[in-house]
Task: structure prediction
Amino acid sequence: MARKNNFEKTKYKNIISLKDAGGKTYFYANFMLDGVSYQKKNLTKLFNATTAKQASDVLEQVKSDIRQNKNPFNGSRDGKVKDIVLESIDNRKPVGKDTAYKKSIKGFYYNYIDPVIGHLFLDKVNDEHVKKIMKSLEGFRKEYKQNLQILMYRIFEKEFRKGKISHNPFYDLDYGKHTSKSDFDTRLNEPIEDVARKLYKTALDFNKKYRLVLLMSVMLVRRVGELHQIRLNNIKKFSNGDWYILATKDITKSEIEEKYPLPMEIVNLLPLDVLEDEEYKDAPLFDFSMGSILLNYKKLVKEAKIDINEGYSLTSHDNRKMFLSILSFSGTDSDLADRCLSHSGKGGMKQVYLDVPYRIRKEIFEDWWDFLRIEK
Result:
């Protein structure tokens, strides 16, 4: 057991340290505030402070909380950044498996984020902390800043939307951009209206095994990764007979529950005989890999005889771009059409508060389906 004289002073006021038998150093605070004495508060155990500087920063937050009549030691607040980020990484699919990607992203977190804010509660992270992290990434490839966006922006945006923090300090940053695809006029030798209709008509008669998922990609303009995760219990039916998909938070990129309608072309391909069977409720709708979906989308493009310039390509994600572009050209409000795509990127206050009723989104999808069905 450690004796009292094992404590050592640090250069930071009211912060002392103690090294245990295993060599781990713990940082404690002894301080008085408003006539109350607080002795040997273990800031390492309570707040993950791993350096004297972090302990000093934590102490200032603790004092601030006490002045606001909050008890910073009762553990009733939400977790600290380190706990939340590591849990978020561990919960990435496949859950329970420490993949190479997870190891890589954890390494990035420990190298660049944890030393600055790992010991803080989310509501204590401010713009200065974020600037310090961004500065540490200067000179690195843009992928480093994009890793920061993948890890931190979504976590803080989620808590902001819940009202647990007043703002997202990772919101308006230059993360570096992924290289954008060339526009359709550069890649294609025919109008995108013709391309969209060709894809739809070809999908109707495509290989039966992949016909449903390709039609869903074209008509529902959902991300392939989301379609691949749909389970039978995500497919629902209204009392009026209309079918829809309720995409739960665990399968949407935005991590927000989404509901979208289904056209009859898709309903007619669903395994209706097992949809309401309890035995199959958690079964996946598709029993093939996401890679095979992407491969067959390439085949779809080839069979549709899309006129693509040499050196360019058309991907399933382009369905979403065509949906937004074509509907906007035809007079649909672009913000409403964009809401149908469930974008998870930065959209400011408008994205947070723009709530488009299912009825309106269904009308927009029906406009899209009517457009695809037009015979030329």
Residues 4-67 form one domain. The chain has three domains: 4-67, 81-161, 184-373. The first strand starts at residue 8 and ends at 9.
